[in-house]
């Protein structure tokens, strides 16, 4: 595990984007695992800037998003479909049919999970999985539980996750109760995982996840088993670590 701390969010975002840029420069047809939420927004901003400068192309790449809310219309500004268009897809040359997001409005969500899983199986392995971290230790929407699911599945969101994400909605009632998420199996199968964590409010959970016991009640702790995990923290999130400074 390689943990790096950054003095500023700007440097962290630039370094995060740098990993994607290097990958696409050396492997233009790479498979990217993409995350949403507040954490990776700045990384996507840097990627768009780099794309505009001609430093990278997504033309041959494929992407898979980690998750999507169930029942939130695609055109809702807080759907992860809208998020990805707003922050990345509308600004780069990734062909639409090469960008995959679970369909949270599928008539049969269970069937949609199987369809998504089949698409992931076709791609075989994600080259670089970008991950944020939930306050309760979730990765994707794999919530703390007695057991975790390996494949893509429908999950009931924990109250604390809905509360945390309510900041993006007008009211708590609008926050969906369920989501479709990639399972921990595919996440852990990625060649490289880039975990990005910012803010003092996540200092404790990221420290427990990466140094404490591996428990399904703290899904991010499973990342300790990954052979190629890069962790990027800002100083606030790194509070409990003694880390290598970027
Ligand atoms: O980056 P945020 O907004 O704190 O969210 C944490 C994580 O929870 C999710 O919203 C759920 O997948 C992720 O997108 C994100 O990585």
TrEMBL record:
InterPro entries for this protein: Glc/Gal-6P_isomerase (IPR006148), Glucosamine6P_isomerase (IPR004547), NagB/RpiA_transferase-like (IPR037171)
Chain ranges of the Glucosamine/galactosamine-6-phosphate isomerase domain: 20-227
Catalyzed reaction equations: alpha-D-glucosamine 6-phosphate + H2O = beta-D-fructose 6-phosphate + NH4(+)
Superkingdom field: Bacteria
Pfam family, one: Glucosamine_iso
Enzyme Commission no: 3.5.99.6
Keyword match Cytoplasm: no
Pathway(s) this gene product operates in, as recorded in its UniProt entry: Amino-sugar metabolism; N-acetylneuraminate degradation; D-fructose 6-phosphate from N-acetylneuraminate: step 5/5
MF GO annotations: glucosamine-6-phosphate deaminase activity
CDD domains to which the protein is assigned, alphabetical: GlcN6P_deaminase (cd01399)
Key words of the record: Carbohydrate metabolism, Hydrolase
Active site (catalytic residues): 67 (proton acceptor), 136 (for ring-opening step), 138 (proton acceptor), 143 (for ring-opening step)
Keyword set includes Lipid metabolism: no
Residues that span the membrane, as ranges: none
Family: Belongs to the glucosamine/galactosamine-6-phosphate isomerase family. NagB subfamily.
Its biological purpose: Catalyzes the reversible isomerization-deamination of glucosamine 6-phosphate (GlcN6P) to form fructose 6-phosphate (Fru6P) and ammonium ion.
Protein name in the entry: Glucosamine-6-phosphate deaminase
Taxonomic lineage: Bacteria, Bacillati, Bacillota, Bacilli, Bacillales
